[in-house]
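hey m, so remember when u said the tokens were messed up on ur end? i reran from scratch. heres the input so u can diff it against urs
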Amino acid sequence: MHITAHNVYDLHSPVRCERRCYYKLHRHEEVSPGAFEELLFKLGSLHEERYIETIRPFVDVGAVPFDERASLTRHLLQQKESVIYHGYFCTEITVGTHLTRLSGAPDILVREGSSYVVRECKLARTADEKNHVEILLQLQIYGYLLQQATGSPPSRLEVYLGDGSVEAFVYDGGISALAAIEEIVGIASLAKAPYSPPGWSKCQGCVFTRWCWELALKRKEAAIVPGVDQGLARILRNQGVVTADELLSHYTEDTLARLRRPWGARTQKVGTRKARSALLHARALVDNRHIFIRRPSLPQGPNLVMFDLEGIPAYMDELQKIYLWGTKVCGVSPSPFIPALAPVGPDGDELGWEQFLANCEGLFSRYGDISFVHWASYEKTNVKLYIDRYGDRDGIAARVLANLEDLLPVAKASVAIPEPSYSLKCVERQAGFRRTQSEYGGTWAMAKYIEAVETSNDTLREDIIQQILTYNEEDLEATWAVYQWLRALTG
């Protein structure tokens, strides 16, 4: 059996999934990674390459044939080389009854005194037991491998984070490394893939969707019902309740409300409100129809601004940035699509904000005190962020904030849908909205934007930017379609 230090990522990142780890270990067929996953890999490599250039000179073990790397790494350690880049360890250990080959390739080994610092480069901005435990476990495994190779423990373990800071950790003598390895060996030894509840955010972007998520959708599993969390899904499965139909046949609102499921370090009753919601959504999924709950409290007015942002999170840049502020008035007197696209350059972020304020000033001038309708909390959070970052000329942004109307909680409170999520992508299907692009989504747009910024091909850049603009405009049109659909539900 062959286990690598990277297998802790397969188990824990982006969220814990025993099934994903099993599939990786057993080399199940993977789907091609999406544009976002490829972007993360590219940015991670750039982050690492930029850092290693700051600690020259170094020996790059990754530049030699793979079958020579372990022996070269041992030789360089014996020669007390100052900096070893892409070193490689491989050893055999016994885990339970399994003879296990354990390998790992730490990014950087830096000599310090009589031993070495093990240092990894990661895009993440935090690393602890709650955030990115896989980073800590991978470092501990590398420390254990170093100790096996040299007979001495590492001086310490470090991670160079996405914001340029360095976090240091104490090597625990192999305790957590061996525990993590034992868990992974246990998963690899199973006769079939272990159960891990599927979920909308958990499964998006996973390379094993055809083995898990797609099957869960086809079977209408209880785990994909909105309101059924991961802990509840495990309890239900242990009771033989796997599908939404079985959930409906085994439980009433009262009995489900009294069911206790894991909640942190303890257990907690599901409760009446969550039980009612889960059963209602299970019925919608089983019957493949939406179920009206109550009259939606919708923003009013002859005209409404549809509002949607596209941004880059902080771990991909020095700051969280919005590169596209999209607005479009829908109603009696509609407007064309009005984007504010941040130009490339050191001042682009602020210039994009200023253009957005100018666009909003024009909207208020033409339409009066008009509502800005958006989906989820992203828009509100980032308007506040940019007010703090660059200020609010003439109080325009404050006026936008006062007029924001989030359509997501309205939809959740008003109608149960036969979908695994209340993402706009799912709800718009119920409203009958159809997009023109085969590829789209926030993470797709993010990856395409980075591609546009980095390319030197002007024609390609213009084509990519147009694709992103089309996606953003269709997000606005989808929000308007959902608004009209909700309004029609009231009869």
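this time it looks ok to me. The chain has a mean pLDDT of 94. if urs says something different then somethings off w ur setup not the seq
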